[in-house]
Amino acid sequence: MVERARPNLLITRHDVSDNVELSDGSKWRIWPGDIATTLGWLPNTEIEISVSDDEICSHVLINHSDRSQRVRVIKANAHWPIGKVRQELRGG
What is the pTM of this model? Predict the structure, then answer.
């Protein structure tokens, strides 16, 4: 289940492929399997942050324009559990 947590924000920085900073100052680390989705996002792309009940990713960033692009994230200062990342990326 995903619940809305904050209003729409804009991207202020996305110069490192797996990190994004939003207009509220929050910084997020993007799930490795979702990075390609964010590469097309522009500074004027409106992003919604929602809390997620996923066991690995604490939040999702949602492209507000079409709501179909959902990117799993954790806080930028957090680290992925390596074993879980490998397992998920292998399709397990």
Answer: 0.82
pLDDT in tens, 34-84: 999 888 888 888 999 999 998 889 999 999 887 778 999 999 999 988 888
Q: Which H, E and C letters describe the chain, residue by residue?
A: CEEECCCCEEEEECCCCCEEEECCCCEEEECHHHHHHHCCCCCCCEEEEEEECCCCCCEEEEECCCCCCEEEEEECCCCCCHHHHHHHHCCC
Which residues contact residue 45 at a Cβ distance below 8 angstroms, ignoring those fewer than 6 apart?
A: 10, 11, 63, 64, 65
Q: Output phi, psi for 88, to 5 deg.
A: -65, -45
